[in-house]
Amino acid sequence: MLGPRDGRIRRIDWRRVAVADFAVAVQVAFLLVLLIAAGIFVCTLSELRPSGYRGRLDKVLLFMRKRQQEIHTPERKRLLGAELIRRVQN
To answer: Of 5, 17, 25, 33, which has the fewest Cβ atoms less than 10 A away?
Structure first.
């Protein structure tokens, strides 16, 4: 193999090549182990949810918003505003 500057032939140090190849193989093996562990972790987390679980429906707040002029007259709006102010002040 030619050297970088002088054009002389250099010998390949096969021990360095073997160590580098071994390091890459170890990294790939470690990556596979991490991927398998992550998959097992995700499967375990998905199994932790109770099978018959349902949230308490009495604790769910549902509301629908309509335009104010559709549902309240001006008098009703004033009453609602006064009631709101009264409740906030108490």
So the answer is: 5
Distance CA 64, CA 62 (A): 7
Overall pTM surpassing 0.85 (yes/no): no
Better-scored residue on pLDDT, 5 or 80 = 80
**Six token digits for residue 42:** 């995700």
- One-letter amino acid at 45 equals L
Assign 2 to helix, strand or coil. Answer: strand
Residue 27 identity? Q
Q: Evaluate whether 9 touches 1 at the Cβ level (below 8 Å).
A: yes
Asked whether the beta carbons of 8 and 2 are under 8 A apart, the reply is: yes
Residue 72 burial (10 A CB sphere; 0-12, 13-18, 19+): middle
